[in-house]
Inverse folding.
Protein backbone atom coordinates (compact mmCIF):
# COMPACT_ATOMS: atom_id res chain seq x y z
CA UNK A 1 0.00 0.00 0.00
CA UNK A 2 1.40 3.46 -0.82
CA UNK A 3 2.43 5.87 1.90
CA UNK A 4 -0.38 8.08 3.12
CA UNK A 5 -3.02 8.20 5.81
CA UNK A 6 -6.38 6.51 5.73
CA UNK A 7 -9.49 8.60 6.14
CA UNK A 8 -12.73 6.87 7.12
CA UNK A 9 -16.19 8.20 6.31
CA UNK A 10 -19.40 6.52 7.44
CA UNK A 11 -23.09 7.21 7.23
CA UNK A 12 -25.42 6.24 10.05
CA UNK A 13 -29.12 6.34 10.83
CA UNK A 14 -30.17 7.26 14.35
CA UNK A 15 -33.65 6.39 15.61
CA UNK A 16 -34.81 8.92 18.19
CA UNK A 17 -37.89 9.32 20.35
CA UNK A 18 -39.71 12.27 18.76
CA UNK A 19 -39.86 14.24 22.01
CA UNK A 20 -36.03 14.05 22.27
CA UNK A 21 -35.28 15.08 18.66
CA UNK A 22 -34.24 18.67 19.46
CA UNK A 23 -31.96 17.58 22.31
CA UNK A 24 -30.26 14.90 20.23
CA UNK A 25 -29.72 17.32 17.33
CA UNK A 26 -28.16 19.82 19.74
CA UNK A 27 -25.89 17.11 21.16
CA UNK A 28 -24.83 16.01 17.67
CA UNK A 29 -23.87 19.61 16.86
CA UNK A 30 -21.26 19.30 19.62
CA UNK A 31 -19.52 16.34 17.95
CA UNK A 32 -16.53 17.61 15.95
CA UNK A 33 -16.60 14.67 13.52
CA UNK A 34 -20.37 14.40 12.90
CA UNK A 35 -22.52 16.16 10.29
CA UNK A 36 -26.30 15.92 10.27
CA UNK A 37 -27.63 15.50 6.73
CA UNK A 38 -31.32 15.14 7.46
CA UNK A 39 -33.97 14.35 10.02
CA UNK A 40 -37.60 13.35 9.80
CA UNK A 41 -40.14 11.31 11.78
CA UNK A 42 -37.77 10.21 14.53
CA UNK A 43 -34.80 9.44 12.29
CA UNK A 44 -31.57 11.36 11.83
CA UNK A 45 -29.08 10.70 9.04
CA UNK A 46 -25.48 11.61 9.86
CA UNK A 47 -22.02 11.33 8.37
CA UNK A 48 -19.17 10.47 10.74
CA UNK A 49 -15.53 11.08 9.76
CA UNK A 50 -12.28 10.01 11.36
CA UNK A 51 -8.83 8.48 11.00
CA UNK A 52 -9.94 4.91 11.77
CA UNK A 53 -12.86 2.52 12.00
CA UNK A 54 -12.34 2.57 15.76
CA UNK A 55 -12.97 6.32 15.92
CA UNK A 56 -16.16 5.87 13.89
CA UNK A 57 -17.32 3.06 16.18
CA UNK A 58 -16.53 5.05 19.33
CA UNK A 59 -18.48 8.02 17.97
CA UNK A 60 -21.44 5.83 17.09
CA UNK A 61 -21.36 4.35 20.61
CA UNK A 62 -21.33 7.84 22.15
CA UNK A 63 -24.34 8.74 19.98
CA UNK A 64 -26.20 5.55 20.94
CA UNK A 65 -26.15 6.44 24.66
CA UNK A 66 -27.58 9.94 24.23
CA UNK A 67 -30.91 10.47 26.00
CA UNK A 68 -33.76 9.63 23.66
CA UNK A 69 -31.74 7.58 21.17
CA UNK A 70 -33.41 4.25 20.46
CA UNK A 71 -30.78 2.91 18.03
CA UNK A 72 -27.76 4.14 16.09
CA UNK A 73 -26.71 2.01 13.15
CA UNK A 74 -23.83 2.41 10.73
CA UNK A 75 -25.09 2.08 7.17
CA UNK A 76 -22.01 2.51 5.02
CA UNK A 77 -18.27 3.03 5.45
CA UNK A 78 -15.77 4.28 2.91
CA UNK A 79 -12.00 4.50 3.30
CA UNK A 80 -9.85 6.90 1.33
CA UNK A 81 -6.11 7.15 1.23
CA UNK A 82 -4.89 10.69 1.74
CA UNK A 83 -2.15 11.33 -0.80
CA UNK A 84 0.82 13.58 -0.21
CA UNK A 85 0.55 17.11 -1.57
CA UNK A 86 3.25 19.65 -2.28
CA UNK A 87 2.11 23.23 -2.79
CA UNK A 88 -1.47 22.08 -3.35
CA UNK A 89 -0.50 19.54 -6.03
CA UNK A 90 -0.79 15.79 -5.61
CA UNK A 91 2.60 14.12 -5.82
CA UNK A 92 1.12 10.92 -7.27
CA UNK A 93 -0.29 12.62 -10.37
CA UNK A 94 0.80 11.17 -13.68
Amino acid sequence: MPDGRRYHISSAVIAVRPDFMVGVLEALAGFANVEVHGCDKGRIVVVIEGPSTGVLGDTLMRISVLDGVIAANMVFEHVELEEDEVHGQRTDAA
The mean pLDDT is 87.
